[in-house]
Structure formats: C-alpha cells, structure tokens
Specification:
The protein is 47% helix and 11% strand. A five-stranded parallel beta sheet has the order 3-2-1-4-5. Helix 1 packs across helix 2 (20-31) and helix 1 runs parallel beside helix 3 (41-51). It has one domain: Rossmann fold (3-Layer(aba) Sandwich). The radius of gyration is 15 Å and the shape is globular. It has six helices and five strands; from the N terminus they run βααβααβααββ. With 144 residues, it is of the alpha/beta class. The chain has helices at 6-13, 20-31, 41-51, 63-74, 88-99, 105-117, and strands at residues 2-4, 37-40, 79-82, 121-123, 137-138.
C-alpha cells in the first residue's frame, strides 16, 4: 500500500510550490493506478488545516473546496482513509519511546504508526521520517 504524507498532498495542489509539478504528476499517477493508496487521517487533517490557512498558501482554499478535494481522492475505489486500528497504540508508543521525539514530531510518529500498522510505504518529502524504526518510506519526488 502507498501511504501519502500531507506534504505530498499539499505540493500536489499548490501550484506556487517548487515541488508542485512533480508532486501533482505523482499524485495523478498513484490515483490512476491500481495499487492501494492510504490517506492517514492525520495527513488529511493537516491538508485541511494548512490548505485553508491564510498565509500558508498564496491562494488558500475555502474549507468547502478543500473538503471537495479530499472527497475526490476518497472517491477512487483503491483509496482508503487510514485510521488507528487495534495495533496502533503499541506501535505508536514504541515509536515515541525509541525515537524520543517530542512536540510537532508526535504527529509524524502518528503517521508512521498508521503506515506500519497497515503494512504500507510512506511517500513523503520529509527526511525526518528516517528516525522511525520499522517504517518503510521514500521520497517519490527525489530525482533518481
């Protein structure tokens, strides 16, 4: 399963970012493919928060527009909203203890835990995810 971090979603929808072209092409590719795509609820929440925030984007979305974008993603038959399951707490608390993250990085640990729980590979522009043991991740926007 491909799991998408919020930064990929934001870059794909914000034409003012340097990563937009590659992120948009990548998102279209995975949405048009057959492999399962997971959207952690934390990634969706971050997308909604940042994409509608005045000052975060040059042209922020209205909440109605942002919600419609998420709905459009979730309408694909192979896209799933990922929420914490039965193994989440054990994975999450272990990641926090082992990586010793605090503050804002706790949200990244949540995304890492959900990704591990679902057996996915996180697609992210954030190299900070390397700190989480057992997490499979890659930057799909990196030049090969």
């Amino acid at each position: 399963m491909i799991v998408l971090d919020a930064n990929i979603l934001l870059y794909a929808t914000d034409p003012d970012t340097a990563q937009h072209r590659n992120a948009h092409a990548y998102l279209l590719k995975v949405l048009g493919g057959n492999e399962l795509v997971g959207l952690p609820v934390q990634s969706v929440s971050a997308f909604l928060r940042i994409s509608t925030q005045k000052g975060a984007l040059r042209l922020p979305f209205s909440m109605k527009e942002a919600l419609q974008i998420v709905e459009d993603w979730l309408d694909y038959p192979h896209v799933r909203l990922l929420v914490a399951g039965d193994r989440y707490w054990a994975i999450f608390s272990s990641l926090l203890a082992e990586s010793q993250v605090t503050g804002r990085s706790v949200t990244d640990a949540e995304i890492a835990a959900v990704t591990i729980e679902y057996g996915g590979e996180l697609q992210t522009y954030d190299r900070g995810f390397a700190r989480y043991p057992g997490l499979r991740w890659k930057n799909p926007l990196a030049k090969a």
